[in-house]
Amino acid sequence: MDGTTGHQELRRVAKLPATCTGPAPEGPVATFDVFWQSYEENYPFFAAKGIDWHAMRDRYRPKVHADTTPEELFAIFSEMLDPARGHALRGGVRRGTQRRSARCRPARNWTPGSRSSSSHAT
């Protein structure tokens, strides 16, 4: 299609991969890995914002361990996403000075390369 930002093609596989048939990994380290991989595969603006997502993983993953609390993990995720300020959090649950996102939408006043703190909810 003309005007699309990307093209994805899906194909049926004969069966689920082995990693999909067993129990899902649990705990803070597994949560970190899923969080990082989800952004790696789906967030399109790392290059535009000058974010080295692989370096971000190298910096923050060693801070996560089996006894990392949900609050500590949330703080780590928040720090990791801070450079991507072009998106504003809308809705969510406030915990102290931070907000847990119910959903993430582009800010109305966002422009590529912008790092305005007015478009970043805390």
Automatic annotation (TrEMBL):
Q: Which domain of life is it from?
A: Bacteria
UniProt GO molecular function: peptidase activity
* UniProt biased composition (Basic residues): 92-106
* UniProt entry tagged with the keyword DNA repair: no
Question: Keywords, A to Z?
Answer: Hydrolase, Protease
Entries under Pfam families matching the protein: Tricorn_C1
**Any GO BP:** proteolysis
Which parts of this chain are annotated as the region Disordered? 89-122
What the entry lists under Gene3D superfamilies is as follows: 3.30.750.44
Q: Give me the stretches of Polar residues compositional bias.
A: 111-122
Outline the extent of the Tricorn protease C1 domain: 32-81
| Official protein name in the record | Protease
